[in-house]
Amino acid sequence: MTSSNLPHLLSKFSSAMGFFDNLASLLGLRQIKSTDLVILVIGPSGVGKSSFINKFAGQNILKVGHGLETTTRKFSHVLCPSRTEQRIVLVDTPPFPLSMQDEVRIKKWMRKSLGKNMIFHSILYLHRITDNRLNEPPKVHFHTFETLAGGEFHSRVALVTTMWDTLRNQEVGKGREKEIMTGDWEELTRKGSLVLRHENSTDSAAEIIEQVISLGRVSSYGTRS
């Protein structure tokens, strides 16, 4: 190898390293930094939490269940590619309704998370638009996570409707969306919660994350940064 070839090879090596930097990866809780922007993805079984995270990550990093089958019984932390210097971590969570073991796991996870002083930006509550209504009033479950967002909890939660691509009649979906916004989700929308559609694509997932990030950041103790 001649010295004249060295700059070209170094450039190719640098480009390759940049490619790997842009790949998603699973993190342990200890690997999450206090400066990371953490977004929780919650909801019942079969709504597409793992699929949504895979779409945003741009790769199938999480195993996806079929139908109402769930493969998520613990927390999975996915470091996703970001266009900014700040790292974005999406957290896949156990599905609702929670078992007693799930409740124990969540409380244990929250204690460790709060001890790390993570930045919890927001919570995405996923719901199948193919369902006639929300399976359970979301407030039944929210008390578990309210500690993470402090006094600004309602404005930190976004309802993300999924399965739009499986609807034969989009107007039916729009009608259900309106019923949710004027029913179970009305109180949250009045307090600043977003209602967003996931179109089952990487672009759609990225647009949703961009919208919730634009709201600003909230720490685990509810203070803006």
TrEMBL record:
Residues 39-111 form the G domain. It comes from the Eukaryota. SUPFAM superfamilies: P-loop containing nucleoside triphosphate hydrolases (SSF52540). Coiled coil: none annotated. GO terms for molecular function: GTP binding. Pfam families: MMR_HSR1. Transmembrane segments: none annotated. This is G domain-containing protein. The lineage of its organism: Eukaryota, Fungi, Dikarya, Basidiomycota, Agaricomycotina.
